[in-house]
Amino acid sequence: MPALVLLGAQWGDEGKGKATDLLGGSVDYVVRYQGGNNAGHTVVVGDQKYALHLLPSGILSPDCTPVIGNGVVVDPSVLFSELNGLNERGVDTSKLLISGNAHIITPYNVTVDKVTERFLGKRKIGTTGRGIGPTYADKINRVGIRIQDLYDESILTQKVEAALDGKNQLLTKVFNRRAIEAGQVVEELLSYADRLKPYVADTVLVLNQALEDDKVVLFEGGQGTLLDIDHGTYPFVTSSNPTAGGACTGSGVGPTKISRVIGILKAYTTRVGSGPFPTELFDEDGEALRRIGGERGVTTGRDRRCGWFDAVIARYATRVNGLTDFFLTKLDVLTGWEQIPVCVAYEIDGKRVEELPYSQTDFHHAKPIYETLPGWSEDITKAKSFADLPKNAQNYVKALEEMSGAPISAIGVGPGRDETIEINSFL
Ligand code: GDP
Ligand code: IMO
Ligand code: MG
């Protein structure tokens, strides 16, 4: 059985954690391939709620091996506090594997993230302040620190000094901050080495051997398609590739091994941080979506910006990821609206545009063109099959499917594992 990718089709927070957890019981490996603890994935199991930031959601399934791939950036202090939190709740985390090639979010990367945002002022990206961008920048600049560097003190010291040379100039001369001492950073990083050691592995080899042995590997994306550094709403994006291609580079598994790419799609749209969002609502409907949907950031606690479903974005996600399926989440949140507007195209400078414009300026000018679909008032949270849904809810799903370009193979009707309607099996 080959590999599957599960990723966000919008701007993140689509419900990837729940969807991954749902499949976690039937797969052998769940792999994070990009991002870091900027992610906030909520998993609800019975009456227990878990908020995962760095660990793959598969960690909650006892038979599944969770893997942090080479494409992820790891803040060891966050990793340990997440592991401790789960251990205290009785979750066994001993199977975790971490790539020795994954880059470390150092304390100075967190500092640089925060000061850069402060200096951008009105033009800030609205990052999570977790050091994600500066860590990927160091990786690309070839001055990053990898997990494997913790096991050679001399190399680690040289690398930290090299990374800090330029940064200290910037911190002291531009940002008016105190210089960061390399020795202190090295000491802190070395203090993580022993505890990390049992988890460190050649994850490329492990995953490829697993696939040869017919094991099932599930890649769990962080963030979402529109936050992708290449395909998202640049510069209002994260600094990695959540899109399907990222699963290959971020894990060392080739594209020929991937048979299915599942886009997690919320039945409406949300976004955290700055950047364009054509269907954003500033009225009581937006407030109601936020309240009913519980749209508050898992990582930063910020209110999420809310708006109607945008089919232009969904079509774009289908294209850039080669989606084979959608998992539509949070349909239950829309219960109670008499009419539900859905954005089918944009108007840009007086012209109707069906596809996402590649130009940032055009996207900033995009005004949604809505079609309105009839709503439903019946409680759908107990629905177990598509036929259990009220006719108008069925029609809403069918309309979204038609507009979005890939079959909707599952529908979320509540946060719990079992509050899901499965239409086509993913495995
Ligand atoms: P992720 O980052 O993509 O994993 O998503 P988040 O966990 O940040 O946000 C999704 C939120 O929606 C979480 O609170 C989930 O528990 C919740 N959720 C997921 N699927 C559903 C669903 O189908 N219905 C409802 N009501 N909540 C859901
Ligand atoms: P999950 O995995 C929603 C957003 C931030 C900011 C931009 C850049 O839970 O869907 P960063 O700290 O990554 O440099 O911030 O990306 N962002 C997210 N928004 N969900 C996430 O993760 C996000 N991770 C980052 O708000 O706009
Ligand atoms: Mg989230």
Automatic annotation (TrEMBL):
A Pfam family of the record is Adenylsucc_synt
Question: Which family does the entry's similarity section mention?
Answer: Belongs to the adenylosuccinate synthetase family.
Query: What are the record keywords, sorted?
Result: Cytoplasm, GTP-binding, Ligase, Magnesium, Metal-binding, Nucleotide-binding, Purine biosynthesis
Which residue positions are annotated as catalytic?
D13, H41, K139
Q: Does the keyword Membrane apply?
A: no
Q: What is its EC number?
A: 6.3.4.4
Q: How is the cofactor bound?
A: Binds 1 Mg(2+) ion per subunit.
What role does this protein play? Plays an important role in the de novo pathway of purine nucleotide biosynthesis. Catalyzes the first committed step in the biosynthesis of AMP from IMP.
Q: Report the subcellular localization.
A: Cytoplasm
Where does this protein come from, organism-wise? Answer: Streptomyces justiciae
Q: Which EC class, in a word?
A: ligase
* Protein name (record): Adenylosuccinate synthetase
Q: Where does IMP bind?
A: D13, E14, G15, K16, N38, A39, G40, H41, T128, R142, Q223, T238, R302
Q: Which residues bind substrate?
A: V298, T299, T300, G301, R302, D303, R304
Q: Which cofactor does it need?
A: Mg(2+)
The domain of life is Bacteria
**Molecular function per GO:** adenylosuccinate synthase activity
